[in-house]
Design a protein that fits this description.
The chain is mostly helical. It has one domain. Helix content is about 75%, strand content about 0%. Helix 1 packs antiparallel against helix 2 and helix 2 packs across helix 5. It is elongated.
Length: about 140
């Protein structure tokens, strides 16, 4: 069997890099950069053709965020649940699920945008045909 994944690898690499860069900038400079890392995950989801691909690749693109979080770039964990092995896995799964959701939002946005453009073009075609028909009828 031959599989055609049709994945935008460039968007995956750049989106993951953008997400990781904002985490690092947040660690080094200002903490308000942390939420901006979602821009990269939105880009990954938006660049895909289907919602399913956008969701899966959003989770894959959030792997650098998991690595940076576990290395302490989003703050250190104090003694408690998050320092146990189950807590580490819970944090990793939570970040991956959040990345999948943000990728889903990006791909869903693209789908709705394409639908809106199609409806707009259809309305424009209807309007043009009416004007042409009126001109032909007047002659």
């Amino acid at each position: 069997m031959k599989y055609d994944f049709d994945v935008d690898i460039k968007a995956l690499v750049f989106g993951a890099a953008i997400a990781a860069a904002f985490i690092i900038f947040g660690y080094l400079y200002w903490e308000w950069f942390y939420p901006l890392s979602a821009i990269g995950l939105l880009y990954v989801g938006y660049a895909q053709n289907t919602i399913k691909k956008g969701t899966i690749l959003g989770a894959i693109a959030s792997i650098p965020i998991v690595i940076l979080t576990l290395n302490g770039y989003m703050g250190t964990f104090k003694e408690g649940f998050f320092t146990t092995p189950a807590g580490v896995v819970a944090v990793a799964v939570l970040i991956l699920l959040l990345g999948a959701f943000i990728g889903l939002v990006g791909s869903w946005t693209k789908k709705n945008r394409l639908k809106a453009i199609e409806e707009y073009e259809q309305k424009q075609k209807i309007g043009k045909n009416k004007k042409k028909n009126k001109k032909k009828n007047k002659k």
